[in-house]
Write a structure and sequence with these properties.
An eight-stranded mixed β-sheet has the order 3-2-1-4-5-6-7-8, sandwiched between helices. 38% of the residues lie in helices and 14% in strands. The N terminus is likely disordered. It starts with 41 loop residues before the first strand and ends in an 8-residue tail after the last helix. It is built from eight helices and eight strands. By secondary structure, it is an alpha/beta fold. The chain has two domains: 177 residues, NAD(P)-binding Rossmann-like Domain (Rossmann fold); 34 residues, no CATH class.
């Protein structure tokens, strides 16, 4: 549990969860001397579940969003999924109809990537294939305006391998949402050795503006969550195979002992 005094953090009082900012634990916001970039328009490339959820997140937060997909049918599918999600929110009393209509109206679609030329942030959520993503980033480098942030949702590929195919590696960053993006709060903000400080700070603050909890990390395999999750899952399987405990016992132990919402086998 958390404790007062200096452990990993300094807390305001015994049993308090309020962290006192210090040199090792900054309070957030832009670092001293760093000016945030102005993000008013967003482009999202992709039409799958992750891309659709991200479009909804930004549209709900008030950002005009341009969706780029391979065909009009894909764009229509994104629009339909968002419309269904908004209708469900209205039905459950989480949103009124006017707000839902305004949110849907902020989303537009195109099949030509040139529609992204004036976007302040362009975020790709396409297939996890390095060659395909590199081709995309080469294209974005030529299309997007100077100063646009080029972000990727990759969960497994080195972001530096995307940055290095552009003429502006300082503008490239990871913005790893978790599925479903419109529900899950966490965003891993992943910087490479080349990412500019203002791009990092802007992405962190933007994540907060759209209702997410950003955590910063370096460009390493698995980032934070998957780097810790996969060994945990592998060890659970090894324990089961060695007959040290049943799957149910392991699940109960991790939920009860560690306070996890579900066990490794659920």
């Amino acid at each position: 549990g958390r404790k007062s005094g200096r452990g990993f953090y300094t807390y305001a009082a015994p049993a308090s969860s309020e962290v006192v900012p210090d040199a090792q634990t900054p309070s957030g916001g832009a670092p001293e001397g760093v000016t945030l970039r102005d993000v008013k328009t967003v482009g999202v490339i992709g039409s799958g579940t992750m891309a659709t959820g991200i479009v909804e997140v930004f549209a709900k937060a008030g950002y005009p969003v341009t969706v780029i997909a391979r065909g009009q049918d894909k764009i229509d599918g994104v629009m339909a999924s968002i419309g269904k999600s908004l209708a469900k929110a209205v039905e459950r009393g989480r949103m009124d109809q006017i707000t839902a209509d305004d949110t849907a109206a902020r989303v537009s679609g195109a099949t030509d990537r040139s529609a992204l030329k004036d976007c302040d942030l362009v975020l790709e959520a396409i297939a996890e294939d390095l060659a395909i993503k590199q081709d995309l980033f080469t294209d974005l480098d030529a299309i997007c305006k100077p100063g646009a942030i080029l972000a990727t949702t990759t969960s497994s590929l080195p972001i530096i391998d995307l940055a290095k195919v552009t003429s502006r590696p300082g503008d490239v960053i990871g913005m790893h949402f978790f599925n479903p993006a419109q529900v899950m709060k966490l965003v891993e903000v992943v910087s490479t050795v080349a990412t500019d400080a203002d791009v990092i700070a802007t992405t962190v603050e933007l994540s907060k503006k759209v209702g997410k909890v950003p955590v910063q990390c370096g460009d390493r395999s698995g980032f934070i969550v998957n780097a810790l999750l996969f060994p945990y899952l592998n060890d659970a399987i090894k324990m089961l195979e060695a007959h040290y405990a049943t799957a149910d016992e392991i699940d109960v132990a991790m939920k009860t002992g560690c306070g996890l919402p579900m066990g490794p086998f659920e």
